[in-house]
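WARN  no MSA supplied for this record, continuing single-sequence
INFO  ligand: flavin-adenine dinucleotide
INFO  echoing inputs
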Amino acid sequence: MNVIEEQYDVVVVGAGHAGCEAALACARLGLETIIFTVSVESIAMMPCNPNIGGSSKGHLVKEVDALGGEMGINIDHTFIQSKMLNKSKGPAVHSLRAQADKNEYSKRMRQTLENTEHLTIRQAEVTDLIVEKSSIQGVKTLSGATYYAKAVVLCTGTYLKSRCLYGEVIEHTGPNGLRSANYLSDSLKKNGVEMYRFKTGTPARIDKNSIDFSKMEEQFGDERIVPFSFTTNPDDIQIDQESCWLTYTNEQTHSIIRENLDRSPMFSGVIEGTGPRYCPSIEDKVVRFADKNRHQVFIEPEGNGTNEMYIGGMSSSLPEDVQYDMYHSVPGLEHAKIVRNAYAIEYDCINPNQLLPSLEFKNIHGLFSGGQFNGSSGYEEAACQGLIAGINASRMIQKKDPIILDRSQAYIGVLIDDLVTKESHEPYRMMTSRAEYRLILRQDNADLRLSKIGYEVGLISKERYDWVCYKEKEIAKEIERVTSVTVGAKKEVQALLESLNSTPLKTATSLAELIRRPELNYDVLKSIDVNRPELHPEITEQVNILIKYDGYISRQMKQVKDFKKLENKKLPQNFDYNTIPSLRIEAIQKLNQLQPISIGQASRISGVSPADISVILVYMEQAYRNNKDNKGE
Ligand SMILES: Cc1cc2nc3c(=O)[nH]c(=O)nc-3n(C[C@H](O)[C@H](O)[C@H](O)COP(=O)(O)OP(=O)(O)OC[C@H]3O[C@@H](n4cnc5c(N)ncnc54)[C@H](O)[C@@H]3O)c2cc1C
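INFO  complex generated
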């Protein structure tokens, strides 16, 4: 009988993008933490696309960094190309994306974990939860060893009962042939946890030397690289960048796929799991967008130390022979040598409606979870959940209130609220369209929105906190100044406006008014702003955005005020909504099952109508008044 028994404050199961953030947060907050993985070589492994960030995902990385997480710093030290997406659009959708050197990314994250105090790394498969009276006590591993803990954070990703499929081939492994974790799902079910079966897919990897790049469009990184982390000095990361390449599928590719759909496990029904709607396989795209005669294919380097190239946009689970024909039909890939086949992976994850907005399980106290295990998809979505789950596991142990970010504070708040409140039967991927207050949730102001919380939690240093407070003050001061500066229709002013194709002034106006003109901005008006102070670019960037989008931002702030009113109307937990007369059956069922923490959250549950919300509001108001009367107040 294995008698290994150890005691920790926190057990983190999984060293993927979620687990790493969770474990680092707990250990950095001084808690004795152990992190489990089925293979230490796979710490922070990127089994799919070799990039971090992109539309809305860049926002998540910035927010993780602003709260004191690691992903932003790690990619700033291991990227090989960087690009700010959507630069031609408004700042709300500017999104940073960096191509990563996958091996270096994993290696550096592993070193960070290895060199973090209070953190123990353990290669072992966790097979069982130890739960007593609905409270977590610890976990057991395959060897029978027991690890007791006050909190457990599950971040098992795509490994639970996972199997990889392409054509008729089915391998009962995790990603990249790593072992799968086959026991923990049963232990979760035994403890009343509802599980889902999801799937995702990845494209083949091909040898760089077998590609004809002359048939593709080279995609360059940005000249001036912007870092993900607010702690990274941009001057330290201006590297020679690798290129990506753009080519397209064509009718030949599409007919090869159509002729073999019956051999695709996804279309033959072998695959049971539900896949991500917004990350479709190539066969899915050919079927769903039959009118399109070509689809973009991005050839991306996997790193400096390898010739492997990732075929972005062509993930698939078609048989190997079809994959050869399919990829060879793409211009530039006619002689491609496949290093790894494309495949789909199915895995167990949970219904995230079983979680509180703190990412703690409603029915198992002290059990938290993050990442793909919660039904999301993507490295960035995983990292932010892992960070919040780790922070809240620590705060539970420290007897502090959980950190719950709402939809007006962060994309992280939108993501977690969507997961725990809305019904979703497919992997959840973040998008800017999901964030109703996206004009104020920009990636450029993530530190102003969140770093004070990171400081209060204990993950942001005093120095970073002071810098954010200083920035805030200087931004307000400079906005006040440019609003009060009057610019007259003088010769040099008119000349500058003319040179910038801007209408000459008829009468004097404020500098702020000029900044608001679409063709002008804070920087280009320097020559006529004689008393301009020397300010840090992060400050002038904010001044420019806050003045230019002042109208939209104030309107959105008003909406946030109304939103917060409903968010602050708290609802009792474990409440029986059958007791509220004239509430509709469907609403009662959904409310009893989900136990929303506020009127705001209740209003976002599908099946709960605005009329139901009014009924609850009246009832709660009445209950509150009766309570006051009873107390004779
Ligand atoms: C084939 C494939 C294709 C993908 N395609 C996409 C895509 O197209 N778009 C996209 O956004 N995302 C995609 N992803 C998802 C992306 O990889 C994940 O979103 C991300 O890695 C999730 O991070 P995570 O931390 O939740 O889990 P993971 O990175 O999967 O890490 C899980 C960790 O848990 C450990 N673990 C699991 N169970 C146990 C156990 N019982 N005991 C001990 N350790 C355990 C593992 O060893 C690993 O360290 C894909 C993933 C795969 C595998």
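The domain at 475-554 is CATH 1.10.10.1800 (Arc Repressor Mutant, subunit A).
INFO  checksum written, moving to next record
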